[in-house]
Amino acid sequence: MAxxxxxxxxxxxxxxxxxxxxxLPADFARLGDECAALEAAGVDRIQWDVxxxxxxxxxxxxxxxxAACRSRVKVPFEAHLMIEEPDVLIPRFIEAGCxxxxxxxxxxxxxxKTLAAVRDAGAQAAVALNxxxxxxxxxxxLDLVEMVLVMTVNPGFGGQSFITSMLPRxxxxxxxIVDAGLDIDIEVDGGINTGTIASAHQAGANVxxxxxxxxxxxxxxxxxxxxxxxxxTP
Length: 234
Ligand code: DX5
Prior knowledge:
Blueprint: E1 18-21, H1 31-40, E2 46-51, H2 63-70, E3 77-82, H3 90-95, E4 98-104, H4 111-120, E5 124-129, E6 147-151, H5 167-179, E7 185-189, H6 197-203, E8 207-210, H7 212-215, H8 221-232
Parallel strand pairs: 1-8, 2-3, 3-4, 4-5, 5-6, 6-7, 7-8
Helix pairs in contact: 5-6
The structure holds D-xylitol-5-phosphate.
D-xylitol-5-phosphate binds next to β3, β8 and α7.
């Protein structure tokens, strides 16, 4: 196995490991079938990478595409909103069947208000931090979220390399959450594969998003999910 990058301030986590596929590399002509295959492969939930071509230089899918796939599977959906002014569309993503809404701290002037509105609408809320956004940006709103997503690539595309300097950030955030006695997951997204997942988990991430590593496994989705899960589970 490739040398795993390490953080020095790891405290790890005993929170349940969740393997969450990004559907970014999926066959967009068969998204319903792809969701069904992911569920059959044993994923814990499905992440929809929503991109608007403004916050990130890519454009993907809106709420109607997600709604079209909702009835194909039972696993929860999470919407990773890489979109400017998310407040406008958040109700549509909840209506489409997303149980968890991930809001980038960089996309709204009133993050506390936006996350509170997600919870008031009956969904779970999470905040995402780009690689250059201090983790301190999440601290004032930890009481509103189930999860913090620490991006391990710059958002916009799949297949990028894991940014190893994010590991100490994950570890520092996990330490803060533990010290504060909070019940919060940490998710990482970007470049998660057999060579990086163990380090991400040791740093304190328990929700691990993978796109390329799942869809490009020559032995198939089920093999990829179980291999990643076993590497993340000490
Ligand atoms: C970036 C996307 C990707 C995707 C996963 O905006 O969020 O991180 O989900 O990409 P892989 O697993 O292929 O790096």
